[in-house]
Amino acid sequence: MKNNQELLEGNILKSLTTLAWPIIMANILQTAYQLIDTFWLGRLGANAVAAVSISFPILFLVLSLGAGLTLAGTVIVSQFKGAGNQKMINFAASQTVMVVLVVSALLAVIGFFLANPLMKLIGAGPEIFNDSVSYFQVSSWGFVFLFMFFVFQSLMRGIGNVLLPMYIVLGTVFLNLVLDPLFIFGYGSIPAYGVAGAAVASVITQGLSALAGLVILFRGKRGIKINIKDMLLKFEWVKRLFSLGIPSSLEQSSRAAAMTVMVMLVTSYGSEVVAAYGIGARILSLVIVPALGFAIATTTLVGQNIGAAKIKRAEKIGDLSSKIAFFGLTSVGLILFAFAETLTRFFVPNDPQVIQDGAKFIRIMAPSFGLLGVQQVLNGVFNGARFTQASMLISVFSMWVIRFPTAFILSSKTILGFEGIWWAFPISNLIAAIIAFVYYKTGYWKVRTIKNRRIWVEQGIR
Hints:
- The chain is mainly alpha-helical.
- The protein has one domain.
- It is built from 18 helices and no strands.
- The protein has helices at 5-9, 12-42, 46-83, 86-113, 115-122, 129-140, 143-158, 163-185, 195-219, 235-267, 271-307, 311-338, 340-347, 352-365, 369-384, 388-413, 419-442, 444-459.
- It is globular.
């Protein structure tokens, strides 16, 4: 957004939608990486889809350990933007880029060498084990590229520049659409890599997007300029990034770990059920994109308004975001409920059992999507207020105290069988939304924000 005052004084709905729609589109396009992979791998059979599905939660777990740091960059930059401090925007961005670079390089090495034992731990069957390991190993090399683009994207969002990342993602997704079948099935001198080919295509496109993002940040013509001098890590700033980022990382990693143990429950029912779960999880990842888009827009808008000492306006933003997420995603859920079988057949056209099980999974989840949206946007409010611990606690409770135990009990102790795993999703969405909403309405996050802001000013952080 060219005029930053619009975020601080203009119409809230217009500000939210102006920020949110490019974020939503970028997230849809990023999710398209997985959907494109699933589409082409589905042509190899259910085992190929299962191999990627079983490794995806572990990949997400590893990625989430560093992804929280990019959110910390969004929060800090947004508040300095609201305070009108360009020098600190550039400095905070430079520190964030270097921290994320170091973390992502470590995770890439760890992920590559632990691929084999991780796939054994999660319970990959002999028919999909080798493919799942090779897919994970190739994907690990892309962690650095993926994180570098994520940090670029997060910093741009922090200052309200949401269109540029979307354009870059759009270009790389189109490229991935071409490269996926090329490396999966082979062509001419390019051999057919099978399941690993999907990962090769993604790593190439991730590398290009990371390069574009870093070039833009170093040139400094888009609202943020990083430089080598400011990238020399300073303990106080690293500490601040981790204090904000670790709760967010734990929130995301708790979700990923919960997805992992859910897969471990699913694997005991065979590769067809794993494939059905994988398709349902992909649909869920696509549906949650609008909620995440409004959550990130809410984080940016709340952060900038708090930086400008407009606490009441920040609360109005949270109220409106919650309503949009609830009614919007409930409508989307009803549409997906009606077309669940058609969607499942699109990914695995020749396996009737997978189609039936996947469609039922979608129908059971779909009515609760609005509740999931409420939880996400309220987490966005807490994050924008630098209260990332609240988001973490709500997510950990939802996943580990509600979803996994419910899935385990319903699937192993009742006649529902594996369908009990499906029912754990709407149950946990309902309880998490209630907890987040009640906590939001207590207003503690506002009291904490006012107190912390006073401390920051006294310390000269602004």
